[in-house]
Design a protein that fits this description.
The chain is about 45% helix and about 20% strand. It is of the alpha+beta class. The protein folds into 2 domains: about 160 residues, D-Maltodextrin-Binding Protein, domain 2 (3-Layer(aba) Sandwich); about 130 residues, Glycine betaine-binding periplasmic protein, domain 2 (D-Maltodextrin-Binding Protein, domain 2, 3-Layer(aba) Sandwich). The strands form 4 sheets. Strands 3-11-4 form a 3-stranded antiparallel β-sheet. The chain has a 3-stranded antiparallel β-sheet with strand order 9-5-10. It has a 3-stranded mixed β-sheet with strand order 6-7-8, with no helix packed on it. Helix 2 crosses helix 12. About 35% of the residues are buried.
Length: about 325
């Protein structure tokens, strides 16, 4: 073989080697090799109520589109959920009502089983409500104010005739909570504390649906109504209601408002720091959840549908939680 031919063959072999090496390099760079990142799914707690599922879906969409994490929701009782967080089987609880779980919550914090990431919302309320049209009127519906000076629970005896009990016209009727709920004991304590038993009967409906049916019937007719409810709740998103407060701290103070937190299992910040960074910025309101739950109720929508609607209509809020590149990825996902 002459020198010219030898140089030509050598060049061909060298070119083949370079092409082979480049192909290997592309495989590694594409993440198809051993260096590809293996992200474990983020497990969210589902303790059984719709506002929690709504927040799970918002966070899940952002984590999937923006950070490449799949998410799952694990259902269970409050006790089982916190046992799962302690063991690391559940990563995040998006809506912890800590005052309802004082012993479990305090034990988890003191022993480092989980950490608080953010205050999700603190404008929640539960207690006695009246329709706002009773106090302010509603000109569009032709309703005049009925109780201009009604503000406190202790004011109710002045208006007992408006809330006539159909089974005992000599007294008014307060719609209480469901027998067996912890809040029912506190509401009844307030009922007695303010001597409402002298002018009102405390009526316990058999279900939450019965409470809401009673309120809906009265509201649609523009009639007086007083009773228990809470927010976030779909009915608070649909109707304009006003809570009755206490002049001074009394029995209702223990349930009226509380900080609703996002907590994560103690190991999540090490395993997925970008996830805990994002959730540390997450903050909403009861008003947002009320609107979402009313949308679900009125349209037969899912929590996922409500989450997409929220992300599409509230860019000014959620875009503050994440970086610009994550924002663009999430926007592309929900268009």
């Amino acid at each position: 073989m002459n020198k010219k031919m030898t140089r030509w063959v050598t060049s061909i072999l060298l070119l083949a080697v370079l092409v082979f090496m480049a192909g290997c390099g592309d495989s590694s760079a594409s993440g198809d090799g051993e260096e590809a990142e293996d992200k474990e799914p983020i497990i969210f707690a589902d303790a059984g109520w719709d506002s929690l599922r709504f927040h799970n879906e918002i966070a899940g969409i952002i984590l999937d589109a923006g950070y490449g994490y799949e998410s799952e929701q694990r259902t269970g009782s409050s006790t089982a959920i916190f046992a799962g967080i302690e063991e690391g089987d559940i990563d995040v609880h998006m809506e912890v009502w800590k005052d309802n779980l004082t012993d479990i919550y305090n034990d988890g914090i003191e022993n480092g089983h989980f950490e608080v990431l953010s205050l999700n919302f603190d404008d929640n309320y539960q207690g006695f409500y009246v329709p706002t049209y009773m106090i302010e009127g509603d000109s569009e519906r032709g309703i005049d104010p009925m109780t201009l000076d009604l503000k406190y629970v202790s004011d109710l005896p002045e208006y007992k005739d408006l809330f006539e009990d159909p089974e005992d016209p000599s007294k008014g009727r307060i719609i209480g909570s469901i027998s067996g709920w912890t809040v029912d004991e506190i509401l009844f304590e307030a009922y007695e504390e303010y001597n409402l038993d002298e002018t009102f009967n405390y009526f316990r409906p058999g279900s939450e649906a019965a409470i809401n049916t009673s309120l809906t019937d009265a509201y649609e007719k523009g009639e007086p109504w007083v009773g228990y409810n809470y927010e976030p709740n779909w009915i608070m998103g649909k109707y304009d209601m006003t809570p009755l407060v206490e002049k001074e701290e009394g029995p209702l103070a223990s349930i009226a408002t509380q900080d609703i937190e996002i907590v994560a299992t103690s190991g999540l910040s090490d395993r997925a720091p970008e996830v805990t960074d994002f959730l540390s910025n997450y903050q909403t309101s009861s008003a947002i959840a009320n609107e979402a739950l009313a949308y679900i109720q009125d349209n037969g929508a899912s929590a996922y549908d409500a989450a997409v609607k929220f992300l599409q209509e509230n860019e000014d809020l959620w875009t503050e939680w994440v970086s610009e590149d994550v924002v663009e990825k999430v926007k592309a996902e929900i268009e």
